[in-house]
Write a structure and sequence with these properties.
The protein is mostly beta strands. It contains 1 helix and 18 strands. It has one helix at 12-17; strands spanning 2-3, 6-7, 24-32, 43-44, 61-66, 77-83, 89-95, 105-111, 113-119, 129-132, 139-143, 154-156, 161-174, 182-191, 198-206, 214-224, 228-237, 241-253. Strands 4, 12, 14, 15 and 17 form a 5-stranded antiparallel sheet that branches. A hairpin with a 2-residue loop joins strand 1 (2-3) and strand 2 (6-7). The longest helix has 6 residues, at 12-17. The chain is globular, with a radius of gyration of 19 Å.
Amino acid sequence: MKGGGGSTYIPYEHLVALGRVPGVGKNVKFGASGADIVNGDTKEVWDGNGVAYSWPTSDTITHLKQASDQAADRGKIVTCQGLAGDYSLVNQSKALDATNSSTLVAWDTPMIRMHSMQMTDDVVASANISAMEATGTTHYATMLAGNNRTLMAIYTVPLGKVALLAQYYVNHINITNKEARSVQFDLWSRNNADGWAKQLRHKKATNKDGTTNVDSQIPVFLTFGAKCDIWLTATPEGAATNVFAGFDLYLYDA
């Protein structure tokens, strides 16, 4: 870029975000619990309203529906990013049912992982929208009413990619008249390519007042190969609490 009669320096991370570095991308994974996580429970940080996340073992993320029929949302377009059964990256869009938005509609490509969903239409959804299996029982991603996109601190590295985790950040909000002494946040990974169980990679805790954002920069980036799950969990101590957390990834062609 040019400016002021000379060259303008553009930081590398900005070039990556702008898509100007071939073979390199960036993914910001921010999650929110939606509802309070119960005191002492450990839950993944996603908009599942304090419920534990269900990890698919095959490409069973096949359908989409709204929690209740909303006339204004019928036929509106939802776009998602996920992984097919072989962990290859999938971007696809699907319209909610045009006559009853709470009717299950099938994605074109079944998925084993769901990274994100967003409403890509001219409406703010007035009821939750979820990606599910064929029976409509298990929620693998949920856009809470009014958000128009998912908030999930959950990611799986696509086939043909390597991910570098540069930082993660955590926070919580206390309930009125109920104050958590702290909330412990754990960063986990699971190497599905080699069949490993989950591993704890890092941890942080927020303070009692719930006002201090904890931002953990990692000078030597953590590295995750293809098919590796990465996620954050939260464990409140002393009282139920609403949590927020996320992490930033650089994605390189393998």
